[in-house]
Amino acid sequence: MIKVEHSIFALPFALIGGLLAARGWPTGHQLLWIIVAMIGARSAAMSFNRLVDRRIDAANPRTAGRALPAGQLSVAYVAGFAVISSAVLVLAAARLNRLALLLSPLALVILFAYSYTKRFTFLSHLVLGFCLGIAPAAAWIAVRGTLDGEILLLTGAVTLWTAGFDVLYACQDIDFDRRTGLHSIPQRWGIARSLHVAILFHILMLGLLIWLAWISQLGWLSFLGLGVVGALLVYEHSLVKADDLSKLDAAFFTTNGWIGVLLLLFWSTDILWFLK
Prior knowledge:
With 276 residues, this protein is mainly α. The chain has one domain (4-274): Tetracycline Repressor, domain 2 (Orthogonal Bundle), CATH 1.10.357. Helix content is 78%, strand content 0%. The protein has helices spanning 4-7, 11-22, 28-52, 54-59, 75-96, 98-117, 124-144, 149-170, 174-180, 185-189, 191-215, 220-239, 248-274. Helix 6 (98-117) packs antiparallel against helix 7 (124-144). The longest helix is centred in the C-terminal third of the chain and has 27 residues, at 248-274. The termini are far apart.
């Protein structure tokens, strides 16, 4: 029900947020509980989404084989898993600091609210993006106990990056969404225009990352990493055509997974080298 490749999207950016906040490695205690919090948050969000969308998933041929609509898991089991995962997030936040604990219920509200947005707004992609975008801000809070404007640039970048690839992913459901009244950018504007919107989101993402690297006084490695990320984004968009979505999984899972991991590699090396 919850795949490792789903979790790899947000975790690298959370770790970057923690590294930037600490200007180096967070303490072992902080790093442990940041990762536990991420696991709890991701598991709670995914299981809640599967619960809320189980009837929609059952009606969509692409998702009918998921665990809940296929009868592999029960509603009670998934609901219990969501509750336990939420408790794990709150526990981890409590082990970090007071502000993290106070904001953990708000984080859960944001994560759970996304599941309903596609029922009434085509901007649901940006809401999903924000769900991942709060990860680096949360890690910053975990390390510093405050929320500062600098890290919001990374929140914005992750929000736009996620929204961009989610627009691409939603292209495969355009006919189903139109039949069932669900909202998305492809459903509203068609595939060709949606591809342009995704490109715009990713250009803005790179702009925010460049801004963040500049004001954080990172070194040349961070900018080299951004060059690699830019090249991967170009490759990602080259795989998806308005009349050919056959390579969408490669664009969505493989390429975006590498983007997060490689940016973490370049930026963590840069932070530990230049900001130590």
